[in-house]
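Minutes, project check-in
Item: structure for the 85-residue chain
Input as provided by the requester:
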Amino acid sequence: PADDGVVEHGMVIEAEVAGRTLKFLLGSREIEDTLPAGSDLKVFSEKSPLGAAIMGAKQGDEVTYTAPNGKELSAKIISATPYLG
């Protein structure tokens, strides 16, 4: 993906979610097995509630979504950069 700061498939996202900072790769869950050994990078599907909510967002954007437990959560995008693994 282009390094334009827009959240899309194949990007490493850093976001503040429910008061915690998360860093994850947005993509198919199957690619988690292909990450380098020792990588602590989690993979979130773009079809997950969080993934779907942040698609197309940019650095500084804040979105809300409904978590699987039914709670409304907010996510603020800190950064979105292409995964170079």
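Outcome recorded: The chain has one helix and five strands.
No further action items on this chain.
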